[in-house]
## 1
Amino acid sequence: MKNRNQIDEVKALANLAGDRKLLTELAQILSEDLPPLMRRLSFAMDQEDRILTRLLIHKIKNLAAAFFATEIGVLANQIELDCAQGDYDLLKKNVRQLSKMLEYLLSEVYDRSWSDLKGVSLCQIK
């Protein structure tokens, strides 16, 4: 991960025709939906369920895409490939890295006052 900043606000706003209110609403959805998705992902990883892992990664990738979080998208794509290829050690390593990146994404959302759910944290993947 190159840096802590995950959000490309300029591209996100351009994609939403400059609608800052809609971007804030999407940030609120991210803040609400990401923690339970990460708990489910942790369970899927514990069960070594690559099918469920792949499905959850895809959902997470779609949530982050609204913010043009490019590094998250690239890593999520790699994780989807890891699931298909069955390299579980690499899969675990990449999911742990994604978890850290998503924490940074949520931090940015909170720092920009786009969500009122400050303090919600993600389940860390083992």
## 2
Amino acid sequence: MPLLTRSSFPTLIALLVLVLLALGGFVFSGVYNMGADAAHSRPVHALLETLRERSISVRASRLPPPPDLGDPERIRQGAGNYDSMCTGCHLAPGMAETELSRGLYPAPPAFAKAAPGNPAHHFWVIKHGIKASGMPAWGMSMEDEYIWGMVAFLQQMPTLDAAAYQALVASSGGHSHGGGETRPHGMGEGMDEAHESMSNPNAPIDESQPHVHAPGTPPHDDASSDSPAGINVSPEPSDGNSNPQSHPSGPPADHHAAPAASTSGGMIEHRHADGTVESHPAPDSAPADRSHDH
């Protein structure tokens, strides 16, 4: 007797509709807690774990590891990249939990305490990442050759203690994977200059070079309207008897003399000889507490 007959078909359709309505009601009710500080229920956890592992295993099975995965130079290169890119979540030998590793769910594996694992599995995860887990797809900025270097290092890390790990990282090239590397916290050269200027507000300003203002500085012109760069483009006289040269950006003056300064509304205004005014935040009278305190 067939399982699906003409008479049972409406019943199955009605059951399917009820299941869909129940599922929709569950989703839109918001009853399920999606907070990272609350674990999934066992059925949901089992479903997600199976879905993730099967998805990765099927795709990783097509990735043969390179024959020189144990090459010391490859391992050394991978150590430098791992230390720069992965320790915040996956830690390192002798390293305590971080705020990030403690707050992520699912918890990222601590590779220093785990078995080496399947190299192809590691490669696929590093390159493609994992949805809704906090694991990024490093392959978007990292070439396969460097990813295999990190995989090679992961195979060795469980055998390293803290001293051996630090020695290996110190002998590596650091964060280097062929372009696209970023500085910690995304600070570029301009932000580094601004940070240095804020930490030393009494440092002289080189008006002959473009400079970066600290974050929060009000909009202003660094140059007068007569010269795009606000720079004296004429050479200085070669001897004391020569006539003074013209200054497109203002009257003849010692451009490198210390500018007049005044304080207004918590800002220091530097008035230059060419008439331009430059504002910077006034330094605190007492050093700020820059410690990371919760």
## 3
Amino acid sequence: MCETGIHKDEDAMRHEYIEENQIVDRYLMEQLSDQEREAFEDHYLHCARCQDDLEAARALRGGLKAAAGRGWAQTPSELEGGWGSRRRPRPLWTLAAVAVLAALLLLPPIYLFLQMNELDSQLQQARSDLRESRDTAEQRAQQVGRLSQELQALQSQLGQEEGRLQQQLQQERQARQQLAADLQRMGRPQINTPVIPLDALRSAPSEGSATVVRPADDSSWVVLSLLLDRTGFAGYRVQLRQVDEVAWQSDGLRPNYRDELVLNLPVDMLREGDYQLHVHGLREDGSYRPLGRYAFTFKP
């Protein structure tokens, strides 16, 4: 459909231009320029609305010409004798008939014009609704795309978290199996496990003077015996140190009847190198007093 003015490519003339400039009436009265006439003829050949308007205008003009031919609508110059002579005027009913005829001829174009305006309004509303529907559809499509990306990201995160948990579970299973094996091994009777006695250091140990401790081939324990120089304490604390690092500590230990502290150390706890055992006695006030140091070198 054409809308406004004269267009060079698609439609030579628009409806608003036709209505505002009374193109139909001027076309019938041959008052159009050559450009307007050619543009209007190119337009109405493909426009049913303009064809109906043109036919209605032609019918109206034809009816008026027919009424004038019957003497119903005469001008003063058409009266016999000119202005100097008088003829008997037509009856009033003839003038009323002309008015009714003109009104009837004008009704179809007016009705069509109103109908076209109503259809144009409905078309504009339909176009507006269509644009809103398209905008809503685009917004929903964008929202769906965004939600799809977020879902993919969550699925990726869940996959990574599941993989991490599976790895952690596998490690825990291996640790439990190793612990069960260790407990089973420690639960077996230890026969002829050598007990290695250690004497307290009187001074700083010289290089190569520490007792060398080696585990038995079929044993998972190292048994150390510490002869106490001082007794009579409520309990004893023993710390196993490698350099300045405390590898193990235990409180509330009590000596045997020979005033010895016997320590069963798992082989898995020890690394190759030099160790010292620091012994403290628990006083009545709850404080610990250093009693002695015992050195050994572990070689697996």
